[in-house]
Give the backbone structure.
Amino acid sequence: MNQVELIKAPITEELKQFEALFATAFNVSNDLLASVLTHLQQRKGKQIRPILVLLSAKLCGEINQNSLYVAAAFEMLHTASLIHDDVIDNTFERRRQPSVNALFNNKTAVLVGDYLLTTSMDFIARTENLKLTKCLVELGKGITVGELLQLQNAYKKTTETDYYAIIRKKTAILFALSMQGGAISTGGTDAQQKALRTFGENLGICFQIKDDIFDYTPNADIGKPIFNDIREGKKTLPLIYALNQASETERKTVTEIINSGDLNDTNIILLHELVSRYKGIQYAEKKMEEFHQKAHSTLNDFADNDVKKALLATLDYVLVRES
């Protein structure tokens, strides 16, 4: 059994139920909306977040209809946020396919993102559970604040503290609340909810650091252009660390390149060589391992079973994934 099979094994039937529920949101009468949603269905991801919802739910009790609604709501909000991100960042490729804004246009992308956002609200409303509704509200606010923080820090000096503040809001909060929401849906105790939320946050930080490493990896199979962050003025952990080790002259050169927006092949090579010379990727991998260990320890009080093994396998998978 490979790692992905191990992760999905305890929730195989529940994942099928989730997929059936999620697909109901794509049955629409508007022709343009239907075309966009068909395109989105063709680029389905690994479904890590619904998997985390269902595993957390099962670790705390028996998966029920509310667990499925939470998984659908959070995945739908995530999908909406990606569509909006692509518009904001002028990204034209995602998961090796054209983004919605590239295939259609920005107006259509924004409106479809809004449709998916309200569909997310519809799913969570069906739970009739105020705690779960508050989780979705917190998630929507958190992602938005994270994007604003990133926008605010673009083309500016970014510290490691700034970086973690951004990714905690922009990425890790979705993992954290997916797990907390799953626990709430099956009556998890406050202690269980807190532990799973902490696990999810540290897992999410690992996930984002890995993505940021991919951005400096020319052969990475991530379904979107490499060096994309730096083209948008975003300094992520490998470059932040490298700049901290670099000379004043090197820092000035990098700042001029980023501020000018002149990210031609020569300058991209220069930035990549700087990150390599000062071992920015190795440092990012070291920090990722630290968050991996923090996440691992938060599950110590849960009984050893297939569900816990699957969650730990998910944590390990994030570190070794190649896409």
